Amino acid sequence: MGETDSSSKSNRWSLQGMTALVTGGSKGIGYAIVKELAELGATVHTCSRNQTELNESLNEWTTKGYRVTGSVCDITSRVNREELIATVSSQFNGKLNILVSNSFNSIAWS
């Protein structure tokens, strides 16, 4: 059947080998984005200001077999952003394919 075959469609949406950073990923829209990216095969790092919520989310994702890591970070803090980027750069060997800045605060990433 060629391109209409269902396996072709699923392969088209694969994110295998891709890396992603999603800020604010422990709840709400950020949580849904992390889940979707992980389900599509991406390796995801997320951050949250709340350690408890982050741990709960990470436990859920680990149970499902998703490749998701996380760290506590307040992205309104320049120092925290620099630490986050260093962490992600180290984990992903300098390769970041997808950045989702899921924050209600307007920040500059510089």
Automatic annotation (TrEMBL):
<comment type="similarity">
    <text>Belongs to the short-chain dehydrogenases/reductases (SDR) family. SDR65C subfamily.</text>
</comment>
<dbReference type="InterPro" id="IPR045000">
    <property type="entry name" value="TR"/>
</dbReference>
<dbReference type="Pfam" id="PF00106">
    <property type="entry name" value="adh_short"/>
</dbReference>
<dbReference type="InterPro" id="IPR036291">
    <property type="entry name" value="NAD(P)-bd_dom_sf"/>
</dbReference>
<dbReference type="InterPro" id="IPR002347">
    <property type="entry name" value="SDR_fam"/>
</dbReference>
<protein>
    <submittedName>
        <fullName>Tropinone reductase-like</fullName>
    </submittedName>
</protein>
<dbReference type="GO" id="GO:0016491">
    <property type="term" value="F:oxidoreductase activity"/>
</dbReference>
<keyword id="KW-0521">NADP</keyword>
<keyword id="KW-0560">Oxidoreductase</keyword>
